[in-house]
Amino acid sequence: xxxxxxxxxxxxxxxxxxxxxxxxxxxxxxxxxxxxxxxxxxxxxxxxxxxxxxxxxxxxxxxxxxxxxxxxxxxxxxxxxxxxxxxxxxxxxxxxxxxxxxxxxxxxxxxxxxxxxxxxxxxxxxxxxxxxxxxxxxxxxxxxxxxxxxxxxxxxxxxxxxxxxxxxxxxxxxxxxxxxxxxxxxxxxxxxxxxxxxxxxxxxxxxxxxxxxxxxxxxxxxxxxxxxxxxxxxxxxxxxxxxxxxxxxxxxxxxxxxxxxxxxxxxxxxxxxxxxxxxxxxxxxxxxxxxxxxxxxxxxxxxxxxxxxxxxxxxxxxxxxxxxxxxxxxxxxxxx
Length: 336
Ligand code: PMT
Prior knowledge:
31% helix; eight-stranded mixed β-sheet; binds ligand PMT; disordered C terminus; alpha/beta; three-stranded parallel β-sheet
């Protein structure tokens, strides 16, 4: 076998797998195998929410086991909530993520990543907690999927993944200028960067001296890179991220409409991120994807895994929509 999918994976089986048991055929096979493992949890919602099951699921995720679902909804036992087995076609699409290769071959993908820094004076700046991990995982997944990748990143402490072009920037304006300078020929633009929305109107040339009284900082908006890319190149397939501390779905849908992009990947940040450590800085994340005619959920997983799933969804949607590159010389064929 190239992979093992356990569907349905009961609470008991997840516990057995976590423990490394081998006293029945299925757990022995899983323990003795070195192919990728995928679990499709299905159980009563309270069993799924139980701290023991949640801990087991996290342990398995950390060991690289792919978790497909569970879905939410009505259950066979009469209760409602998370614990339903994902539909077969969703499971299949999730499993295909393990084997994706070449889904973006021939495409050029630009990814923005990390934070930007907006200088206040010679030694201080405004910024945020983005580590760049999500964006780097997305860029690597696009490389794995066969794309030529341009990674435009703010100041992060991450080493450059193989086989891509990295362009370093510091400010939102520099990110904007760099994106615009290299966008020609790009087929898919994925904006994972946490770009500062405001910058100081005036930047002191020296270090501002401490005084006893309050001071005020006047801020002006930075250019919205994603919105501007979409406005200038309406046929470019654009994916935005939404980092939210409340009303995740509502704000994500709003960004989808307002920025006119093909997809928004929404994630929780800050104290509202109860299921995850929050997207900022951590190695794991969970995403809710929204596009014009649909939505889907990518549950808690390592950022690398999530990025692969995201790239697969983007590739499928892009092919369905038959988008064209913005480079007129290079025509992308419409799907049959
Ligand atoms: O870097 P990590 O530590 O791994 O964390 C990942 C992440 C939380 C930064 C990432 O998953 C994420 O959510 N990125 C987007 C964060 C954000 O700034 O969201 P936003 O809602 O403010 O912006 C919406 C979209 O517009 C984003 O795609 C953003 O890149 C883009 N934008 C925003 C402002 C601006 N001036 N220009 C933009 O292009």
